[in-house]
Amino acid sequence: MESIEQINYLKCPVATVYQALTSQSGLGQIWTKKLKVKAELGFLNEFDFDEGYITKFRIVELIENRKIIWECVESDPEWIGTKVSFELNEKDSVTQVTLNHYEWRARTDFYRWCSYNWAILLHRLKAYCEA
């Protein structure tokens, strides 16, 4: 199994980052404006990237200001069954965000492209939360 791992450091409180990653308004600013999101265990977050299908992630873990885990249940076939986690740690007014997209079946070109795009998402998250 393959895993994509990215990290970034944001100069803002952890609560700001958690809110951005669990709310319609936050994810709408950093990922896609076409979405249905709710910070509720078991909820199916929906993201539309205009690719002919809706990407759906079930929320499987929510620990406020600490951890978010989604499981992909509908999307590109390479994503189905994978999980995405966001681990948050604040120290000295800086929040460390570790993103892990894991349980990939193979390291493909799509996998590599997604790694690039996760880095972009973390860059947008930083800009949004620090603004």
Automatic annotation (TrEMBL):
Gene3D superfamilies: 3.30.530.20. SUPFAM superfamilies: Bet v1-like. InterPro entries: ASHA1/2-like_C (IPR013538), START-like_dom_sf (IPR023393). Residues 11-129 form the Activator of Hsp90 ATPase homologue 1/2-like C-terminal domain. CDD domains: SRPBCC_CalC_Aha1-like (cd07814). It comes from the Bacteria. Transmembrane segments: none annotated. Belongs to the AHA1 family. This is SRPBCC domain-containing protein.
